[in-house]
Amino acid sequence: MMFRKDRKMVLFIGFFLFIILIGALINIFIQPIRFAGIFLIMCGFIGLITGVRIATKPIDHFKEDERSVHIKEKAGYHAYELMWKIAILVGGFHVLKLSPSLTPSEDLVTGALLIGVVGLYYFLVLKWYYNKKGVSE
Predict the structure, then answer these.
(1) Which runs of consecutive H residues, i.e. helices, occur in the chain?
(2) Alpha-carbon distance 72 to 36, whole Å?
(3) Whole-Å CA distances, 7 to 10, 50, 55, 108
(4) What are the start-end ranges of the E strands in 1-137?
(5) Domain assignments of the chain as residue spans, ordered by start
(6) Rounded to whole angstroms, how far apart are CA atoms 92 and 102?
(7) Within 10 Å of residue 75's Cβ, how many Cβ atoms?
(8) pLDDT single digits (tens) 63-105
(9) Which of 7, 84, 93, 96 is 20 to 30 A from 26 via CA?
(10) Maximum pairwise Cα distance, the chain
(11) pLDDT in tens, 12-69
């Protein structure tokens, strides 16, 4: 099995090895935040496995064709538009006090997270739709 040894792959794998080292040092020397060390070690191993898997594939494997790039751009643009429309709608409900149950007045972080998740979900749905339909300007 051949591994790519270009600069980007070495930095990618080295970064996650460093994360594992930091997690191990936190685990050994700083007992009150031991869970953070375990979390860093787990994240480091996930990144390391991902890096090794990517390093075994040739660099041409990851190049996208023009159609898929165009579909991602179009779906991303429409998902971004939808996120802002939802944010303006929720903000309008809050300002006008039309529906207190729909507005994130007390927990703004939850409202922003919900808007972001809706945008990501909408991006995935639009990407799937444009792949099935085909792209027309």
Answers:
(1) 7-29, 34-55, 66-96, 108-133
(2) 35
(3) 5, 16, 11, 42
(4) none
(5) 7-62, 66-133
(6) 11
(7) 21
(8) 888 888 888 888 888 888 888 888 787 777 666 665 555 554 5
(9) 7
(10) 63
(11) 999 999 999 999 999 999 888 888 899 999 999 999 999 999 888 887 777 888 888 8
Q: Using an 8 Å Cβ cutoff, are 133 and 125 in contact?
A: no
Q: What is the pTM of this model?
A: 0.53
Q: 21: helix, coil or strand? A: helix
- CB 71, CB 135: distance < 8 Å: yes
Assign residue 135 a region (left: φ > 0; alpha: ψ between -120 and 50; beta: otherwise).
Answer: beta
Instruction: Kindly give the interhelix angle for 34-55 and 7-29, rounded to the nearest 10 degrees.
Output: 160
| C-beta of residue 86 within 8 angstroms of C-beta of residue 118 | yes
For the chain, the residue count is 137
